[in-house]
């Protein structure tokens, strides 16, 4: 009896130990994305003039997706990466003019991982809304150190806009909801914050999303990095002699390449710091490291042989690097040739980390984990779609579909004849050198029908028909700073002193509000400002004094949805419109 009991206890503990060791800890995730870094801006992709040893090493140690695609510009890529859905479904259709506010109802990667017990951190560019409820810490990131707008020193980045010549140094950032002054170069600062986050959560699991704003313009970089490239000249013939396409490169674009390469080399040094930190924290073996870029290069330079730049649906605009360095046992291949895209990252990561996805929001992306296990995995039967315009997507204009190795592109409007499209066999012609639309009319019409179907589907999405609004007067953000990046109006809004701007808001709580209206320039000596909130008008007379701000001390607002706009007029016809607007609910009222 004693002997049997001892045996049973021994077996019980043995099985418990086996079970304990069979349940490995959930993997951490370090997701790294750069801004406007093209496919050719890495030595690993055949560029002999750029110095990227850390990225080259990461590529060599990773599963490399050789046919990976993103959207042609920043915010659409970021919304698809965070949600696994085409950007139009999320309310994102552009990079500014109110087109870069993501609907708060979307289930984000950060929310899904946070709810599964992960610590979630975001560092760098967000570009999916600068106000509640669309900020990174509203959308699932427990810690966020970020800048507003689409980039430092852009019109929506109010704290740094007036230091445009040096905004990448000592930037004023935000830590969740609070202003956060920093010291140092922006890419170094964001890396510091990511490393501190990983240190604080070394017992894991964590999701760290490091979204560098470099090498986006302005091309500001520490002198030591620029000096490495200051005498560099790109000779397109070097690449053309190898059969790779390179656009003609002007003197201005040569200089831009020097700045970009310097910024990428700085990023590379920071990548090495991140890899060293993972080793020092004993986290490297259980951390999924992902590297990608958000779109192609803004300027002409070497793009791995591809045609096109940022903003276009040509390969140079949307075909980007994608590396996954995985813990041992998660992958049995070195490369994946399956055509993949930003929308696939969330479902794939959820599968690798054994997380359930919400059932209330269907994803466009697919789980690609099977392709990590075998090169014999059957190809997916699906079409992938890409587009970008400065407004809602017009059918066939700067729009592409990729399926079964073929790519159809349209650059004209909705009444286009099939002969006006471009069709390429990417397996035989990856550089898009020979348009075969006349040779393959059946395939072209089939893919055109795919575009028709997809366009009709996404344009019925609720969030593109009822665009996300900024919520003001909420306890989560008060005051609210309404900037020009998220203002609506004509698709030309930038820093012009007189361009029409408006903001679509939801007033969360009724009460008295203070409104501070800021302008880009000093107001004329006399004039009148009219502020409209919905169907209510508030007029303020101005006379004397050199000011660029007007204040309404107490405006009675009720709850509801409203459009806010305003304009200043002076004798002689001078017109000024707000640069930004601060709206604060007075809590004591």
Set down the secondary structure blueprint.
Blueprint: H1 2-22, E1 28-34, H2 53-61, E2 63-65, E3 68-69, H3 74-83, H4 109-115, E4 119-125, E5 143-147, E6 172-175, E7 178-181, H5 186-200, E8 206-211, H6 223-229, H7 236-240, H8 251-280, E9 287-293, H9 315-318, E10 322-325, E11 335-336, E12 340-341, H10 345-352, H11 369-373, E13 384-387, E14 397-403, E15 406-411, E16 422-425, H12 441-458, H13 462-465, E17 470-472, E18 480-482, E19 502-507, E20 511-518, E21 526-533, E22 536-543, E23 549-557, E24 560-569, E25 575-576, E26 580-585
Parallel strand pairs: 1-8, 1-9, 2-11, 3-12, 4-5, 4-8, 17-19
Antiparallel strand pairs: 2-10, 5-6, 6-7, 9-10, 13-14, 14-15, 15-16, 18-26, 19-24, 20-23, 20-26, 21-22, 21-24, 24-25
Helix pairs in contact: 5-8, 6-8
Overall form:
globular
Tell me the number of structural domains.
3
The CATH architecture assignment of the largest domain turns out to be 3-Layer(aba) Sandwich
Strand order in the sheet with the most strands: 7-6-5-4-8-1-9-10-2-11
Supply the CATH superfamily name of the largest domain. Answer: Alkaline Phosphatase, subunit A
Total of DSSP H or I helical runs spanning 4+ residues: 13
Strand content is: 15-25%
Distance between the termini: 79 Å
Main pleated sheet: 10 strands, mixed
**On the 0-100 scale, what is the average pLDDT?**
95
By helix and strand content, what is the structural category?
alpha/beta
Query: In angstroms, what is the radius of gyration?
Result: 26 Å
What is the class of the largest domain in the CATH system?
Alpha Beta
- Stretches where pLDDT is under 50 for at least 5 consecutive residues are 1-22
Number of strands: 26
- What share of the residues lie within helices? 10-25%
According to CATH, the fold-level topology of the largest domain is Alkaline Phosphatase, subunit A
